[in-house]
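hi! just following up on the protien thing from before. the input was this:
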Amino acid sequence: MSLVRAVRLKTARLLLAGIFLILASVSLGAEDRIHKVQNVFDPHSTPAHGILGIAWIVLAICALIFVVVGSLLVYAIWRFREKRGDQGTEPPQVYGSNQIEMAWTVIPLLIVLVLILVTARTTIEIDEPAFPADALQIQVVGHQWWWEVVYPEQGFITANEIHIPVSSEDDPRPAIIQLASADVAHSFWVPQLGGKRDLLPNHPNRMWIEPEQTGVYWGNCAEFCGTQHANMLIRVVVDTPEEFEAWVLNQQRPPREDPAVAGGRHIFETMTCINCHAVGEKGAQNGFGPDLTHLMTRGTIGAGVGETSRDDLYQWLKDPDSMKPGCYMPDMKLSERQLNKLTDYLTTLK
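and the predicted 3d structure came back as:
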């Protein structure tokens, strides 16, 4: 195979692979209410639209550079290839050209200047917006390996799942998220709703999202933070205003006191569970483990490793390491009877 043919074949494969990945990212999950695919090419929030705009500009400029450089490379290989009758003679050598050197200096500078201006404008629009006085305030704290979610104005705490109302032009409802870390460096990222934001110990950060479509959006920690970094998932549930108000009212209610599961509640309150977790006013209030007051209203347990079903909850209590190896949830060596009672109690926390 000739060198020119090999270059053409490799270039074609790279282009086809890139087109396939982009089309796959755009098409997957676009019509599903649960957006499990982290699709940066399908933004559903104001900041995400701005980020995608920059991405398309950068991709277009880079694609143009690739085409120009690739075309010149292929032309040079073809034009100056060794021909029959050359007898090994060397073509004329060009040792300098002021015009060419000016071109490959000025043009890249102009490209970089354009990218700086566009990026700076979008960054200012995203980082310094004018928020309405009634914007929703949320605090998110990254832990190894779960998310603590605090609604300070509403007065409750949840975990691994954020609920916010949908926004519209007539009724803008941005959510301002204050970010912090309890241990190591984390990074909050829900691709369809906004860019990445780092969570660093003793260094508060902030971001905001303004979703324009209801649904469930999946995100994750985007900064390696230890053994279970890949299983530190976050769900953002975008509700209608009515659904959001109903959810808030339910979260503000005290935990259920079902006499039928008094045995399981006794196990929770007398064993090590209460040292890490809180249920209402009882238990640890230090955020060492997720607040369980309304555990069963969430879609997942263990920051996304299991569903809030009885079977997954039972397995999580029985052997947390089998679901999330290396996690800090201890195996309490409970008997089957204790496991069933504790599971029955936790499933009533709605």
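The chain has two domains: 1-82+129-217, 259-346.
The chain is about 40% helix and 20% strand.
cheers
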